[in-house]
């Protein structure tokens, strides 16, 4: 059954004008070809759709039903084309985003707000994981985009870009002797007890702390290990020890913890947030990345 868009449009114009001559003029064609098109349509449908007479043409009962359905078909076709174009241009669709725990309450809310405001037709699906897990899932196609901290050397099958770079700060109890300092050298904490991030649960932060302390000339004295940030800050808040954490986490610390800037230019006192994706990432991923160019920590 050949019900082309052009044929349906011709029929609807005749139905609206109720006159073949006026319809032909509106369509920019002569009347005989238009009459032949409508006859061909009626043969295809298997029913008379128009009653012709000296005064013009009027819809039959079958024609009225067919006209309503034909308009819906055209509207659906128009909507389907428009939606496909929006998806192709990244304005609509879905993006599966993986992230590590340190980013969940810091940078992701800002990205989600921007997406909701600028790309309301885009659905962002979040999935938490470890850095290695997020990288593997992006590579395997289970995720479209990943946000991780310092992922190490990536193979050529993934594209990465630095979204933001921030400093590592000292996490001190509020009543610590250095808690009100504007900045300190990490070496000033050499004799302190430390709560260390679990290398399995928080591998990037754990390695960052180890290397930064090494550069400062000491090995941190471990009194506790925490497998998440809330546990780490709880130990510090209790006044039992100190630790290190990205400075953007200041607003996420529990009561009784102060993040004090660390002085010095050692490379291990900085941490970067990376966005990773496959080289063939679709337009929605690229648009989402464009919105992260000015990513800033979310505040309470």
Describe the structure.
Strands 3, 4, 5, 6, 9, 10 and 11 form a 7-stranded mixed β-sheet that branches. This protein has a two-stranded antiparallel sheet with strand order 1-2. A two-stranded parallel sheet has the order 7-8. The protein is α/β, with parallel strands linked by helices and about 300 residues long. It has 3 domains: about 5-90, Arc Repressor Mutant, subunit A (Orthogonal Bundle), CATH 1.10.10.10; about 95-165 and about 270-290, 3-Layer(aba) Sandwich (D-Maltodextrin-Binding Protein, domain 2), CATH 3.40.190.10; about 165-270, 3-Layer(aba) Sandwich (D-Maltodextrin-Binding Protein, domain 2), CATH 3.40.190.290. The model has no long low-confidence stretch (mean pLDDT about 85). It is rod-shaped and about 105 Å long. The chain is built from 9 helices and 11 strands.
Radius of gyration (Å): 32 Å
The major sheet is characterized as: 7 strands, mixed
How many β-strand runs?
11
Q: Estimate nothing, just give the exact number of structural domains.
A: 3
The CATH class of the largest domain, by name, is Alpha Beta
Q: What share of residues are in beta strands?
A: 15-25%
CATH topology of the largest domain: D-Maltodextrin-Binding Protein, domain 2
How do the helices and strands follow one another from N- to C-terminus? HHHEEHEHEHEEEHEHEEEH
Q: Please tell me the CATH architecture of the largest domain by its name.
A: 3-Layer(aba) Sandwich
Q: What count of helical segments does DSSP give? A: 9
The helix content, as a percent range, equals 25-40%
């Amino acid at each position: 059954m050949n019900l082309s868009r052009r044929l349906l449009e011709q029929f609807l114009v005749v139905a609206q004008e109720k006159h073949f001559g006026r319809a032909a003029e509106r369509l920019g064609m002569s009347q005989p070809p238009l009459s032949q098109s409508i006859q061909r349509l009626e043969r295809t449908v298997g029913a008379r759709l128009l009653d012709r007479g000296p005064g013009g043409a009027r819809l039959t009962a079958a024609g009225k039903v067919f006209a309503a359905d034909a308009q819906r078909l055209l509207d659906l076709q128009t909507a389907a084309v428009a939606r496909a174009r929006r998806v192709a241009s990244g304005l609509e669709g879905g993006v599966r985003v993986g992230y590590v725990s340190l980013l969940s309450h810091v940078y992701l809310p800002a990205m989600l707000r921007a997406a909701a405001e600028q790309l309301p037709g885009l659905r962002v699906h979040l999935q938490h994981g470890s850095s290695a897990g997020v990288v593997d899932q992006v590579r395997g196609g289970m995720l479209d985009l990943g946000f991780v901290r310092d992922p190490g050397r990536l193979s050529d099958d993934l594209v990465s870009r630095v979204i933001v770079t921030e400093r590592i700060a000292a996490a001190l109890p509020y009543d610590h002797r250095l808690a009100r300092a504007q900045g300190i050298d990490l070496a000033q904490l050499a004799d302190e007890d430390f709560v260390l991030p679990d290398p399995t649960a928080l591998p990037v932060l754990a390695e960052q702390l180890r290397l930064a302390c090494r550069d400062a000339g000491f090995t941190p004295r471990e009194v506790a290990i925490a497998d998440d940030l809330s546990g780490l800050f709880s130990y510090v808040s209790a006044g039992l020890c100190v630790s290190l954490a990205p400075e953007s986490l200041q607003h996420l610390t529990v009561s009784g913890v102060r993040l004090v800037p660390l002085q010095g230019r050692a490379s291990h006192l900085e941490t970067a947030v990376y966005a990773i994706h496959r080289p063939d990432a679709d337009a929605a991923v690229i648009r989402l990345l464009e919105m992260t160019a000015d990513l800033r920590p979310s505040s309470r």
